[in-house]
Structure formats: C-alpha cells, structure tokens
Automatic annotation (TrEMBL), chains A, B:
Record organism: Oreochromis aureus
Pathway listed: Amino-acid biosynthesis; beta-alanine biosynthesis
InterPro entries cross-referenced by the UniProt entry: Aliph_Amidase/BUP, C-N_Hydrolase, C-N_Hydrolase_sf
Pfam families reported for this sequence: CN_hydrolase (PF00795)
One Gene Ontology cellular component annotation held by this UniProt entry: cytoplasm
Residue span(s) of domain CN hydrolase: 72-343
Compartment(s): Cytoplasm
GO biological process: beta-alanine biosynthetic process via 3-ureidopropionate
Molecular function in Gene Ontology: beta-ureidopropionase activity
PANTHER family assigned: BETA-UREIDOPROPIONASE (PTHR43674:SF2), NITRILASE C965.09-RELATED (PTHR43674)
The protein, known as: Beta-ureidopropionase
Subunit structure: Homodimer, homotetramer, homooctamer; can also form higher homooligomers.
Alphabetical keyword list: Cytoplasm, Hydrolase, Phosphoprotein
Length: 383, 383
C-alpha cells in the first residue's frame, strides 16, 4: 500500500480493532469522544453526487446557569485542484470557484456559520517550481479581486462567515502576500490576515514569492465568535498560536498545504497542542491530491528533477481545548467537515486548567527580551 | 476493559492491524520508525526477574563529514510506589531507593549515560490530600539529603548522569520546592531545576505545598550533552519548553505524575510538540499505579470523598525533533526505557526546518511585553 492510497487512520482502526480495545485506543488517541452530528439527508445526497466526503461531529460543553450555550457550526473544506496546472489561468480559477460553490452550498444546508477553505485555494501550490510566471498571475486584490467578490456573494446568500485564503496582490506597493481574507456573513469584508511565518524548507522557499506577513495577530469579531487565521507554516510556531489567543481568538483556523513525507506525523500534533495550550478550538485544513507541473524542478535533495513533489494528505480536523479532536477527513478525497461546538467550552476549560493564570507571562516577556539580543548569554551550568 | 487494565496502545495496534496498514498507521501516529535497540541478554533477564518492562529504541541521524556522531543513551524510569502510603516514612523512602537501585543497575548494563526518574520519585504523590503531615516529611535538602547522596553514589558507580526529582526542603528560608536535582556522572551535584508552573486543578493545588520555581530555565552541560528539566505541569506551557531550548538544551526531560481522566489524551501531544517546535529531544516520564491514602479526601468535583484519585498511566516515551517518537512504556507496569539518540539530529533538523530562524522572536518579545500589561488592548476587528 502506498502512502497516497491509504485512506484514513480512523477507518483502519475501526475496521480491525475489537470494540473494547477500540474504545481505549480512541480515548488515548483522540480524547473524549466527539459525537456524530446528524446532517440533513439532502446534504448527504448532494455530497455523494458531487463526489466529496461529508462528515459531521459535535463537541459538547457543560450547561451553565448564567450563559446560554453558544453553539455554532464551522465547516472545513479540503479539495483537489480541478483543472490541470497548465490550463488557462482564468479557467483554473473559475473551475475552483465552481467546485467551492457546490461544496459551500452543502455547508449551508448543514447549517455552517463559518467556513474556511485551504491555503491559496484558487490555485495549484506551485511555489515549488520557483517560476514567477505564470503563478504570480493567480494573485488577486484582497479587497477588489474576483475571488473576494465571489466569496462575498456566497457569504450574503448563505449568511455565512467565509475565510478565503488566497495569493494576494497589493497593487500599491507591488507586493505579493499569502493572505486570508475574512468576509462577514453580511457580505462585507472584515479584514485580512497574512501568513506570519514563511517556510524555507524542501521544495518551498516561499519567500521567492512573498515575505513574512505584517498584519500581526489580528482577531476578527464575527456574529458567531472571535476567530483568527494562522496560515500553514505558522502552525509550527507555538508563539504564533499563543498570540492569536492572547488577542482573544476563540477559534483559530490553520489553512495549509502540506505533503506526507514532509510533515504528516506532525499534523495531528501541532494544531491540537495549540488548542490545549491556549484553551481554544483549532481547525487544521490541508488540500488533497498530487499536482503535476509542466516544467520539471529539483528539490534541493540531490534527487533528479521531477514534475510533482508529492501527495497532499488532506486529513483536516478540529481540536478542542479539552484535548479531544474529531477524526480527520480522508487522506485522498475532497471533503467537508462540519463541526458543531459550544464556544462556552473554552472558558470552562480555562477555568479548569488555568494555563493563562499559571503561565507567568510577565516573566517570559522579560526573558524573551533578553534572549533576542545578539549578545544573550544562555544560562548554562557546567561542572 | 477498564482504563487501568488497558496495557498499551502500541500492543493493541500490533495485535490487530494487518501488516500493510500497521505500517501506515504507525507512520502517521509515530513518524519515522525508531529502530529497536539490541540490549544485553543479562539486562533482559534481570529486568524480567525484577519484574519490570525493559524496552530499547534508537533514533538515527545522518552521517556528517565534519562532526562525528554524538550517540548517547538516555534511560527513563517509571515505577509504582513500593510500600503502602501509611508505612513509616523512612521505610517508604528506603524501599524506593532499593527499587530504583536495582533498575539503575540494569540501565547501567544497557549503557545508559543519563537517567531520569519520575516526579517526586521518593514518595507517593500525596498532594491531593491537602494534608501537610506527614507528606512534608518526605522533603529533603537537594544538596545534602539522603536521596541526593544515594544518587551521587549511583552516578559515580555507573558513570551516569542522574536527574533526581524530589520534594525539596530549603532549610534556610523554610521553603519547600518541587525540584529536580542534577548529578554529574562524576558524582558531583551539577545543580537543581525547580518546577516552573504549578497546577491548580482537580485534585491538585500544589501551591498548598510549594510555589512556582525560581531557577528559571537553567541548562546543564553534561559530558553527554546539554540537558534541562521541565517538571510535570510545565509541559502544558509551550513557552517553558521554548525557553529551555533557547538556553541551549539538547534534551529536555519532563518527569511527571499524572492520571488518565485528567490528561491522558494530552500526554502524547505536548512533549512531542515541544520536540518538534524546538528542534530537540524530549523525554516524558510518568509514574504507574493507583496510590491509596488512609484519610479520605474530596476532589472539588461534587463527588463523594475517596481514598485514591485514579490510575497513573505510565506511558513514558521519547520524542525526536523530526516528529518521530518511540512507543510508550506500559500503562500498568514498572519500566525502563533505554533510548539511543544521535544528538547531531537536532542541528540537522534545525538546518532543515529552520524554526529558530523563521520564528520572529524579536517581534514576539515586543508583542508579549505589551500583552502582559493590565491595560493591553487586544487587536480585534469588528464590522
């Protein structure tokens, strides 16, 4: 079995483990079980017709006396590119718009309040090629671009907050950015959040295309809760998650594009650790499939030039502040993950574990200020 | 099957999954496979006679041209308390010394260079009772106590660095601390590292007994590498791991005492995330068994008073900077985990992933300094 054929860890466990052991294994691996969410039959049918996986789960919180539950539904969408990477650019973008359009329609039927797409969802993840053309032509204005307009229409139509991560072109300064556009359910653009940490690894030195983001750790107050977007490589940086949380984020989305050989064993760890450490929900989204490029390219690993860099393994999931998580979407198929969560859980877990109160942040602020000096002397004891 | 009977996640997977799927499941769950380490037959026999689990694994690194490999072996020891909690204190401590003595002897036979014991290893984890007596009588001087002397003898005898986490009494100020004593393989005490983050959760408000540590993020230069000790609850705080790493730690030990209901699903996540995020090795150690106390106590959860607070689930493991990890020790048995690692792997992974260079720490230092002000205004965008 090749790594890109293996469909899902959860399916494998459920097919083979005896029931009593499965309960223990799932408890240790995934924490308190997330309930399955009943989704409308018409949504299930539509997903099947449109050939994507549809899964629904629910995180519960305790009933409080003074606050009503704050149940909301998020949708995570993972998908293949639709047309070959050498098709005309406008056709590629339009095809992706259509695909997302039909998936978001199902999300709406499922009552999703906030949906998030994968990183640079309108294009192949072509940054491995190091070619500027034609890939930079996929870049659009965050405020005025067709993709933002498209999402604004969806947002209004379905009363849904949309997080739309694109390759952004800022005409004013002639700069490109890796940016998530956040659109309110009113259809208005709420703002944007740029990728804070840029990889220089394997096939990707993305600073060939765009540099570290300058939007800091902005949090967006939506009708359905306070959200933030930590794009892709930022998930490896605990301080990045932390700072979104310190600015009040209740849900942090992590739209990503990452392949197996590089990162798969880290995938279930990092977003989930962030949910635990910061008393919030995190949503990790990865694209699926293998993308082929016409020009060959090398990967700085001594190997021969090739036309693709591996299989995007999907496996999108949601993690909760109590350490539990949903199963992942498929490693191979397009999918929509619908997750209902009571946002009251964040404060309940925070009141229980108290990481924010036992964190000694003032002391870390002092220590970090020293550590970043070029003449910092580490505290090392020798015999 | 009750949670305290379930022996091991890894055993369950290995017993039931077909070979081809097992390979994929293990790759996703544990990363690149750790090789089994051949251990001397006499060690295997001794472990069997002394009724503890003995497992050995090895993390490889690439061969470099300018640096020879830096292969070292660490030992992680998890164990039950030996005598009942109401036995005379000196007897309890002596029995624990004997048990550790016979386990360390096997570690020496296995070529272990650095061994670390579990949190407050000389005593039951009695802090749930909130009784000061007799538990504070287990506290000893870090410099002059019998347990430190005992460890110094072992260290000299076996040429082994010993990390010995105890309840420390500092006579000078009349204070107690939760402290790891670090003893060089010469037998000299290198120093001590106090628990930085103190839980106030469930059965444990440990600040009844000791407060937040004042030893900062000290790193100890040993003959076998630079080590640090992040005690128990500090594993929930990413900044704590981070700061040990910024001070140069190559291996961070996490001696712990934690029970299933509270933390088990977080256990495989946090130390491993720290190894990934900080390009270092982390070693998570938890005690095993259920400890019964004569006086009943309540747990602040509305339930009836009881005499124990649950099953310590062991499951000690080592995580590597490439995201891989060893299988865990048993959830139910005493055990010694021997892990060989080439410390060159840290720099190799750091050169590959470059989190320290893409981390933007200077900007976080500024941001954190603002965040900790009482009048901090979070960056929240509204419509």
């Amino acid at each position: 079995m090749s790594a890109c054929e293996f469909e899902s860890l959860e399916k494998s466990l459920e097919s083979h483990l005896p029931e009593a052991e499965l309960v223990e294994v799932k408890r240790i691996l995934f924490g308190k079980e997330t309930k399955k969410l009943d989704l409308p039959a018409c949504a299930v049918e539509a997903a099947s017709e449109r050939d994507f996986e549809l899964k629904g789960y629910k995180f519960d919180a305790a009933q409080e006396q003074l606050r009503p539950p704050r149940n909301i539904r998020v949708g995570l969408i993972q998908h293949h590119i639709v047309l070959p990477t050498d098709a005309p650019i406008l056709d590629q973008i339009s095809a992706m718009h259509s695909r997302i359009g039909e998936m978001v329609e199902v999300a709406a039927t499922c009552g999703v309040n906030i949906v998030c797409f994968q990183e640079t969802w309108t294009m192949p993840f072509a940054f491995c090629t190091r070619e500027k053309e034609p890939w930079t032509e996929f870049a659009e204005s965050a405020e005025e671009g067709n993709t933002t307009r498209f999402c604004q229409e969806l947002a209004k139509k379905y009363n849904m907050v949309i997080v739309s991560p694109i390759l952004e072109r800022e005409e004013l300064h002639g700069t490109l950015w890796n940016t998530a556009v956040v659109i309110s359910n009113s259809g208005n653009m709420l703002g944007k959040s740029r990728k804070n940490h840029i990889p220089r690894i394997g096939d990707f030195n993305e600073s060939t295309y765009y540099m570290e983001g300058n939007t800091g750790h902005t949090v967006f107050q939506t009708q359905f809760g306070k959200i933030a977007v930590n794009i892709c490589y930022g998930r490896h940086h605990p301080l990045n998650w932390f700072m979104y949380s310190m600015n009040g984020a209740e849900i942090i989305f992590n739209p990503s594009a990452t392949v197996g050989a590089l990162s798969e064993p880290m995938w279930p760890i990092e977003a989930r650790n962030a949910a635990i450490a910061n008393h919030c929900f995190t949503c990790a989204i990865n694209r699926v499939g293998t993308e082929h490029f016409k020009s060959e390219f090398t990967s700085g690993d001594g190997k021969k030039a090739h036309h693709d860099f591996g299989h995007f393994y999907g496996s999108s999931y949601v993690a909760a502040p109590d350490g539990s998580r949903t199963p992942g979407l498929s490693r191979t198929r397009d999918g929509l993950l619908v997750v209902e969560m009571d946002l009251n859980l964040n404060r309940q877990i925070s009141d229980k574990w108290s990481f924010k109160m036992t964190g000694r942040y003032a002391e870390y602020a002092e220590e970090l200020a020293k550590v970043v000096q070029h003449d910092f002397k580490p505290k090392i004891v020798k015999e």
